[in-house]
Structure formats: C-alpha cells, structure tokens
Design goal:
Elements (H helix, E strand, L loop, with lengths): L6 H28 L3 H20 E3 L2 H15 L3 H4 L1 H15 E4 L15 E7 L3 H10 L5 E5 L3 E6 L2 H11 L7 H16 L18 H9 L8
Helix pairs in contact: 3-6, 5-9
Length: 229
C-alpha cells in the first residue's frame, strides 16, 4: 500500500486469510446454533446438577428430632424471666435476629412462577441450638419451619405473611443495628402490597441493662472463654 516490495501480494494474501477465517467462524457458529451446541447442553446439565445439589444439601428436619431437642431444652433452660415477659422476650428475639438473623426482601414484581413472593425472616445457627429455636417457635405460636443445611447448620424460617407481621410487631423499635433499616424496607413492602399501615421501626437506644437484647445478641454471636495463665 505504501510502495513496499511485493506489498500488493501480501495485502491480497492477508485479505484472503481474513475472509476465510471469518467464513469458517460464522459457519461454525450458525451450525452450532441450529444443532443445539454442546455449550448449551452442558450449561443445562450444570444447572440441573446445581439444583439437585441444593435440594440434597437443604432438607427439612424430622418432627421427632425437633420434639426431642425441644424436650431437652425445656427441661434445662426455660425457667428464665426472658421467656416469661413478652416484651423482654421480643427484645431477646431482636438481639438474636441481629446476630444470627437475616431479613430477606424479594424482588418487586411477579416471578416466573407467576406469583409475588413475600419477605422472609431467617435465623441461622448450629444444629446444637435446635432446642432453643424449637422453643422459640413454640413461644411464637408454632409459626415457621426448620431446615437443615449440610450436616450441622439449622435454619429457622418464617415466611408466611401473617407470621411475619406478628414478628415485626413484636420486634419493632427493638433493633439496635442497621438491620432496622432493612426491617423498615420490609414494612414498606408489606404496607404497599397488602394495603396496610404498619408503623415504621425506630432504632432502639435504650440502656442495654434494661432489656434482654444483649442476651439474644450474645447467644447468637457471643463467646465466653476462659484464659488459662
């Protein structure tokens, strides 16, 4: 192109190579698209494998196991003033939620299942604490369900709207961390979806000594240790 020796020949060869590579590439793309390429088949199989893995690792806990854990817990720990005072109990639940809990807010709109999902309140803990959460479930009127993830992780899930509203009313204005903002997002979601008028939760700044919040937070994220010198 600039008068170099044999430049025209090299330009012609380069042009032929470019057109050939593009032709073969597009041919393969089109043929794979028509024949359901191995990529899409592999991706579908991988998705099936992942969903199967999730089903296998997360399963419901047997009712008899829950009852055994509850019986052991009741015989040892329930003589506690936290459980006897409703306000104190919900301060404890608020602390427990802020330590090991999760407030799940679904995407707004209709899902692929053609239904709008509700928020969920989820507590996650070790399987050794199943008795504690079974007792909490009994104190909350039997709401929610249990799920075992892996070998030793238990999840207490509250997902129906009536139960969620009940828990929200109990813990409202008892949270002390930014999770209170998330709770208010859920309250706004519920008010908008069900045409309700639930009050927003204010951040609790009361003295820690006056409530059981710290006990709940410690039960979830706390640790007691003895250092031997």
């Amino acid at each position: 192109m600039h008068g170099f020796s044999n430049a025209g020949i090299w330009l012609f060869l380069a042009f032929i190579s470019l057109v050939s590579s593009m032709s073969f590439w597009f041919r393969d793309v089109i043929s794979e698209g028509k024949a359901k390429s191995l990529y899409f088949i592999t991706l579908k199989n991988l998705n099936t494998l992942l969903m199967s893995s999730l089903v296998k690792t997360s399963k419901a806990i047997k009712k008899e196991d829950i009852e055994i854990a509850l019986t052991k817990y009741v015989s040892t720990y329930t003589d506690n003033r936290i459980y006897k005072d409703e306000s104190m109990f919900f301060h404890y639940i608020a602390g427990l939620l802020e330590g090991d809990g999760h407030l799940s807010l679904p995407s707004i709109g209709v899902t692929t299942l053609n239904r709008v999902l509700n928020p969920r309140i989820i507590f996650t803990s070790h399987i050794n604490n199943l008795g504690l959460y079974a007792y909490i479930q009994s104190k909350l009127g039997g709401i929610g369900r249990f799920q075992l993830t892996g070998n030793n992780t238990v999840r207490y899930i509250i997902g129906d709207i009536k139960s969620i509203i009940y828990v929200i009313n109990g813990i409202s204005s008892k949270l002390r961390t930014p999770k209170n903002n998330r709770l208010n997002e859920i309250i706004k979601f519920i008010n908008n979806k069900y045409n309700l008028n639930l009050k927003l939760s204010t951040l609790n700044t009361d003295n820690l000594i006056d409530s059981a919040w710290l006990a709940g937070f410690t039960d979830s994220d706390g640790h007691f240790g003895i250092k031997m010198v």
